[in-house]
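Example 3.2
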Amino acid sequence: MTERETALAAAQAALAAEHAAVYGYGVVGGRIGAGRRAEATAAHGAHRARRDALRRTVRDLGGEPVAAAAGYALPFPVPDTAAAVRLAAALEDGVAGVYSDLVRASTGPLRRDAAAALREAAVRAVRWRGSDVTFPGLAERV
């Protein structure tokens, strides 16, 4: 696989994760308490912006952007605010993982953008979870 093909595959995976995060934050927004609603809205907007940027990136790399699914399976039921907070942290962990892969697969501005997205997801995960992880985005920690 060429560097471009590797970067394209990683960008497609990141795009798919962003589609899932946008969907997931729709669920979070429906269950989150008023005290954290602005935080959920901001995260939803950030993921929409990253998703839109990744669509352009995939096209720039010569690919056809992966489409969003009609729905996504959630990792657990989300009946209340506490579960919505856990879901938000899980969404950010998932996004961080694919951006970690994109950092490894890319160079130049794409790598810099992927690293920034990884950092942003890790910070949001800490805010939601209330604690951090040593190496955000690395599958080995799971």
